[in-house]
UniProtKB/TrEMBL annotation:
Belongs to the cytochrome P450 family. It is found in: Cytoplasm. GO terms for biological process: cholesterol catabolic process. One of its GO terms (cellular component) is cytoplasm. PANTHER family: BIOTIN BIOSYNTHESIS CYTOCHROME P450, P450, PUTATIVE (EUROFUNG)-RELATED. InterPro entries: Cyt_P450 (IPR001128), Cyt_P450_B (IPR002397), Cyt_P450_CS (IPR017972), Cyt_P450_sf (IPR036396). The lineage of its organism: Bacteria, Bacillati, Actinomycetota, Actinomycetes, Pseudonocardiales. It holds the Pfam family p450. This is Cytochrome P450.
Length: 411
């Protein structure tokens, strides 16, 4: 594969729905030009593609040299221009840097520490059982991605926030429109104005939550965000809504992608499913392998604050770098036989949750949910086979399976 074509693949949403094509490009980049200049004008502004595990780690470890602003994720040149002209509406932990990042992260961090999450573990296991029971009730056939994998983590995170169950479908729709803006089946639209309207709908909803929780404080995560103070002041409505949005969206979409992609991997590798049946103690390592295998977050961007040499290339101040997590998670220098799905892989130094100051806040919860689900499913799953072709979402940011038709028998 021509190395320039390989680089352009990273800016093509359809490539992330075609595993073979994507990984052929990423393997070529790691092998031939691991820090590669990509210039896909006019659709996207230029960036450096960082594809090796060691180089991604080097950037992640230096959050003052490589910052999130002004280009935290890969979006079209039109969207970059729109943000530059109108300002950024969404200001989540993904979009900002220290000292603001540290202050806003501290508002919710305690909710995602292991001690706090142990308090909800019984509820997580109950929801996992309910999901597997639902599979059984569906009569041995379902679109697992749509009917099971989506709902389970959605219920977990929105219950943690304290949102009413009647609102869950609306949050799911908005999440799919937000992350599915490159997918014809999922998106509301592709223009900056249409994407803005999705955010406006989110903000309208969450501004009402903020007002309610300030008037009537409760003991849920939404109330913590609404009533938090930094330097004595409440968060602005925009900052509060931004925190709700990242928790409510990434807090379930990435986990549902891991669970759907993890089961699809087990179906495609029946020997690994049998290993889990024989040794349920492998479920924690199997979940780590699913997270590596799926890599729901495809990239984050960083901007250099100073000239820097990375992988033998001179990165100039102001230039952007794309941290390619699917590539880092298949790096032959780190993973033994990286294209083998191995439920017992140990060590497993995947970077699916990032690293350093911006490491995923919900990593512990995501692991808990996936472990609970497969601990419930595997002993009850007598057999399973594909009922049709799986389909992945078109994306350059967050995504995974959108359809996984299966036939199965559950006890």
């Amino acid at each position: 594969m021509n190395i320039d074509d390989a680089g352009l693949t990273l800016a093509d949403p359809t490539a992330y729905a075609d595993d073979r094509r994507l990984h052929a490009a990423l393997s070529a980049l790691r092998r031939e030009d691991p820090v590669h200049r990509v210039d896909p004008l006019p659709a996207f502004n230029p960036f450096w593609a960082v594809t090796r595990h060691a180089d991604v780690l080097e950037v992640e470890r230096q959050h003052e040299t490589f910052i999130n602003e002004p280009r935290p994720i890969l979006v079209s040149a039109a969207q970059d221009r729109y943000t530059a002209e109108h300002g950024r509406m969404l200001r989540t932990l993904v979009h900002i840097d220290d000292p603001e990042h540290k202050a806003l992260r501290s508002v919710v961090a305690d909710w995602f520490r292991p001690r706090a999450l142990r308090k909800i573990e019984v509820d997580v296991r109950r929801l996992a059982k309910r999901s597997v029971d639902t599979m059984a009730e569906l009569g041995g056939e379902c679109d697992f991605a749509q009917e099971i994998a989506v709902d389970y983590p959605l219920y977990v995170i929105l219950s943690l926030l304290g949102l009413p169950e009647s609102d869950f479908p609306r949050i799911l729709q908005l999440t799919q429109e937000l992350f599915g803006s490159d997918d014809a089946e999922l998106r509301r639209g592709r223009s900056p104005e249409e994407l803005l309207q999705v955010l406006l709908d989110f903000f309208e909803y969450f501004n009402q939550i903020t007002a309610d929780r300030r008037a009537n404080p409760t003991d849920d995560l939404a109330s913590t965000i609404a009533n938090a103070r930094i330097d004595g002041e409440h968060l602005s409505d925009a900052d509060a809504a931004s925190q709700y949005v990242i928790i409510a969206t990434a807090g379930h979409d990435t986990t549902s992608s891991t669970i759907a992609g993890g089961l699809q991997a087990l179906v495609a590798h029946p020997g690994e499913l049998e290993r889990l049946r024989r040794d349920p103690g492998l479920i924690p390592s199997a979940v780590e392998e699913m997270i590596r295998w799926v890599t729901p977050v495809k990239e984050f961007m960083r901007t250099a604050t100073t000239d820097y040499e990375l992988g033998g290339k001179r990165i100039e101040a102001g230039e952007s770098l794309l941290l390619c997590y699917p590539s880092a998670n298949r790096d032959e220098a780190v993973f033994d036989d990286p294209f083998r799905f191995d439920v017992g892989r140990d060590p497993n130094r995947h970077l699916s949750f990032g690293f350093g100051a911006h490491v995923c806040l919900g990593a512990t919860l995501a692991r808990m949910e996936a472990r609970a689900f497969f601990a419930e499913l595997v002993p009850r799953l007598r057999w399973v086979e594909p009922e049709g072709e799986p389909e992945w979402s078109d994306t350059t940011f967050v995504g995974g399976l959108k359809h996984l038709p299966l036939r199965y028998r559950i006890t």
